[in-house]
User: Fold Beta-glucuronidase from Hymenobacter glacieicola.
Amino acid sequence: MPTLAAVLLLAGLLIGRPLRAQTSLLQNAPARQVLSLNGSWNYIIDPYENGFYDYRRQAFDQSATGRGGYYDNQKPSSRQETELIEYDFDKSATLQVPGDWNSQDPKLLYYEGTIWYKKSFTLAPQAGRRYFLYFGAINYEAHIYLNGRKLGRHQGGFTPIQYDITPLLSPTGENFVVVKADNTRRPDAVPTINTDWWNYGGITRDVFIAETPATFISDYKVQLAPNDPNTLAGYVRLEGEGKAGQPVALTIAEAGIKHTVKTDAQGRATFRLPARKLRLWSPQSPTLYAVRLSSGSDVVQDRIGLRTIATRGQDILLNGRSTYLRGISLHDENPLIPGRARGAGDLRMLLTWAKELGCNYVRLAHYPHNETMLRLADEMGLLVWAEVPVYWTIAWENLATYQNAEAQLSDLIATGKNRASVVVWSVGNETPPGEARLKFMTSLVRKARALDDTRLISAALELHRDGYQVTVDDPLGAELDLTSFNEYMGWYVGGKPSEITQYTFAIKYNKPVIISEFGGDALAGYHADADTRWSEEYQEALYQNQLKMLSAIAGLRGMTPWILADFRATRRQHPVYQNGFNRKGLISSSGVKKKAFFVLQEYYRQMARQYE
Ligand code: GCB
Assistant:
C-alpha cells in the first residue's frame, strides 16, 4: 500500500504538473534590466471557468493538443467572422496591474472566482541572454501561459512567481502572456476559507521580464554572521552553463571590502570575512551600503544594511543593545482606495504614518508583503516582523497544505533575507493548540531556522484566562525566540476597558514578550463616553488601560497593537459602525487619526526615552 503522503505527492504532481518548472527566485529581480508589464491588461470574468474546461469539464490544457482555452488568445483568421470564437481579449475591458480587481470595478467588489488577464508585449530575444517572467504576486491560484504555452500553476497569493521564458519568446518579438487568476477560497489552502481580511483577487503586484546573461548570479545573501558585528557571512549562487568554478567578486567600497570567491560544481560559493568598523544599521541610523556582486558579464547592485539581532533572557539585542519594539500591525492595503497597496507611494504613506506614531517596528500581517515594502523599511529605519498566512484553522493533517505553507515561508525568506529591517519570521497567527497543529508549526519553525540563522523566529499565539489570571503556555512557545500573543481584553473578552487593569499574566517562557495584537473598533468621528462601544473614547480608554495592564509584564519588550488603519473585512457587517470594515485602525479609512493614536504616540515617546 502506498502511504498517504506518497499518494498526495503523486496527486499533486499530476494535477499541478507544470510544463516548465518554476525557476528559483532571482534575488533582487527588480534591480535587473527589466521590461515592465505593468499597466492595462485586458480581462474576462469567467465564473464558470469556460476558458479553462470544455463542456465535459475536461481541462483544455490537459488535452492532447493542449489547445482550446482562452490562453490561445484566438483571433478570427479573416475579417469575416466565419469561425466560432466566443471571446476576444482585445475587445474586452482592462484592469490596471498592479492592483486587485475588487477595487477597480464595483461589480467585482465581492467577486471570488476566475478572471483571465492578457497583455501583449514586444520583446525580441537576443542570443546569449535569458529572460524571466516575474509576478510579484497573484491571488490565489494562477495558471500562467506565454504565447499559448503553459508555464505552470502557482498557489499562494502573496509570494513572487517566476518562469524562465527564454525558449518560448517569439523570434518576431510579438508576444502575449495570459493569466488565469482564481481567488476562490478553499479549506485546504493557505490561508484557509476563513480570514479577517478582504479576499482581494488578481495580479496585485508588479509584473516584469528580467533579463540576464546566459550565466548569471541567481541568488546571494550578504549579512553579518549571527551575533557577530565583525564578520560578514553569506553565499552567492550562479546559474547557467558556466556556473562551476567561476569567480564572483563582492565589493562594498565604502566598507573597504573587495573579496572574490570561486563557485563549486553546483555554482555556489560561501564566504566569511572580517568586516571592521562598519556603520551598523538601526532605526535611528538606517545606514545602507552599496553592495556589488559581479561574475563574468553579470553585475547585480544592492543596498544592504548590516546589523545583528539576538535575544538574551528577556532582552532583545539589536547590535548588542537592549531594544524595545515600538510597533504597529498593518495590512498590505491602502485604506484610502480602499484596496491592495499598488506600489511604493501607497506603502510609503503607511510607513510614514507608523513613523509619526513613533514606531521603530512594524508587523506586516498576516502574509508576505511586497518586496518594495521591505526595502522602504530598510530605508526609513523600521524593524519588521514578516509572516506567512498560516492563520486560524489550517488543514493541519493535510500534507499538501503543509507543503504549500512551507513553500510560502521559503519564498518569503528568499525575498527578504538581505533586508536589515526584517528581524522576525513569523510562522503563523492564532492557530488553535493541538497535536497536529504543533507538529505542522514546529516543522515550519525548523524550516525557517534552517533557511536563515540570522533572525528571530516567532508566531502570534493565544492565551487562556481563569478569573483575572491570564496564562500563556502554548507548547509551541518552547520552539520560538519570542513569546508573542494576541489578546483582546476590553474588546472580545475581559470586561470593559476600565476593568482590564486587574489582569495579571503568567507566562511560561523566559523570553522577550512582544504583544502581537490588542485593540478595539472605533468609528472615527463617533464620540460618546468611554463605556460606549465603537466610540473613539472607548478605544482611547482601551489603549490607556491596556498600556497600564501590559506594563506590569516584566519581560515586555514591545508590541504591535491592532492596527494602523481601518481595513476592509467581509466579516465586519454592522451597518452603522463597520460597513465591511474592521475599525480597529488608529487611523480611519479616510486618513483621520483617532484619539487612541495619540495615546500610543505618547507611550512610544516615553519608551523611546527609556531605551534610546
Ligand atoms: C485577530 C486577528 C486579526 C483580526 C483581529 C480582529 O486576532 O489576528 O487578523 O483582524 O483579531 O480584529 O478581530
